[in-house]
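Below is a filled-in request sheet from our internal design queue. Each sheet records the structural input a requester submitted and the sequence that came back. We keep these sheets so that new team members can see what a complete request looks like end to end.

REQUESTER: design group, bay 2
PRIORITY: normal
MODE: inverse folding
CHAIN LENGTH: 380
BACKBONE (tokenized):
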């Protein structure tokens, strides 16, 4: 009896340990913001424990694709109904994070220990996609979240290991449209489970419905400072700014990042339009930037550390894709309007390079700079 109980406990500990290792080595965070003109933008961080080569990618209309089966043969054949911009990985002709010409956005996020894909059969191989091809299919075929929901069962995701990954990447997926609607799609037990995403936030494991339920643990949090209290005639004051968020989880685990992203996006100071919301999103996503050495794991004596490889923001109103990388914190933009949407070939854009330090010594001027400038409208 004792031995059986001990065995069960050891199995549980191993499962928990593998969950912790997997989740801390792929820690991405996504959120959505609404601007004062009722436009929406969405953004995310990209974290991995090893450098994933990312590139900007432009897909024209009518470009032909084939899904990839685990044995390397072809799955679903389809053509792009809509042009798409975003980022790929390992040079694959598939966008993992991007938006299309109609303002529909989608992205893949790591979902370790929960993602279970559909096994290939003679009946489903012609509608099969790899885990990295699924967002690409969504973006090239649909214009709204409702359309995605209606057609979700017309494909299956199979356990293909894409070139460069060295494994079958365990993903779940977020979809946003320009009206602010959002869903999360999770491959669980071979089926695609769709959850409405009322708060526009996504991280990693466990399942999305668990994360939503977990938010109830933080109903006491507020952006407003805690008021003073008098106990038996003795007045207690908060130590300073931020006391209303005392108890906000600050670690980098997926549940903690989910809570922070939900709080920060819900309480963000409103800005007037999507262009300004882009900058707001980058500021919020700074909260999830993982410094090298802060989040690590050890497997078979090999130690790896997560870091934030890139941060991206998508503007569905103006169809712009913004990004910055670990080595270059300058924000860069890919505008769909700059390309021929009926071109015959893909276009790639480097996302590499080291940010130079700008020397501003030559801008020095005599005297003092006006310390009381008129408040501009830039932040409103």
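RETURNED SEQUENCE:
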């Amino acid at each position: 009896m004792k031995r059986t109980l001990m065995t069960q406990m050891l199995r549980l500990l191993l499962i928990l340990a593998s969950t912790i290792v997997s989740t801390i080595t792929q820690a991405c965070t996504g959120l959505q913001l609404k601007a004062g003109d009722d436009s929406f933008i969405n953004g995310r961080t990209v974290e991995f424990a090893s450098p994933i080569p990312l590139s900007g990618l432009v897909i024209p209309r009518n470009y032909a694709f084939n899904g990839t089966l685990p044995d390397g043969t072809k799955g679903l054949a389809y053509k792009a109904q809509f042009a798409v911009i975003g980022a790929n990985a390992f040079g694959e002709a598939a966008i993992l994070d991007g938006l299309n010409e109609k303002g529909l956005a989608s992205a893949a996020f790591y979902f370790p220990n929960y993602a279970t894909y559909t096994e290939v059969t003679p009946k489903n191989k012609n509608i099969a996609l790899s885990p990295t091809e699924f967002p690409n299919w969504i973006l090239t075929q649909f214009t709204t979240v409702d359309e995605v929901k209606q057609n979700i069962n017309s494909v299956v995701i199979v356990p293909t290991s894409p070139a460069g990954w060295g494994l079958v990447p365990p993903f779940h997926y977020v979809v946003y449209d320009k009206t602010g609607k959002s869903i999360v799609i999770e491959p669980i037990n071979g089926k695609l489970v769709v959850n409405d995403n009322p708060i526009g936030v996504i991280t990693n494991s466990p399942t999305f419905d668990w994360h939503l339920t977990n938010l109830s643990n933080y109903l006491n949090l507020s952006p407003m400072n805690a008021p003073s209290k008098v106990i038996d005639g003795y007045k207690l004051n908060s130590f300073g700014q931020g006391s209303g968020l005392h108890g906000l989880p600050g670690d980098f685990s997926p549940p903690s990042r989910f809570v922070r992203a939900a709080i920060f996006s819900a309480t963000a100071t409103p800005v007037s339009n999507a262009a300004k919301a882009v900058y707001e999103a980058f500021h919020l996503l700074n909260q999830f930037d993982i410094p090298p050495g802060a989040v690590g794991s050890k497997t078979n004596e090999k130690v790896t550390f997560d870091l934030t490889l890139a941060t991206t923001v998508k503007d569905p109103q103006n169809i712009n894709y913004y990004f910055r990388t670990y080595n270059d914190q300058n924000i860069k933009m890919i505008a769909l309007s700059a390309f021929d949407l009926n071109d015959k070939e893909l276009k790639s854009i480097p996302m590499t390079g080291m940010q130079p330090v700008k020397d501003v010594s030559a801008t020095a001027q005599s005297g003092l700079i006006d310390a009381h400038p008129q408040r501009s409208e830039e932040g409103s």
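SHEET NOTES:
- The two ends are 66 Å apart (CA to CA).
- Helices lie at 2-24, 134-141, 145-151, 208-214, 254-267, 274-285.
FILED BY: M.R.
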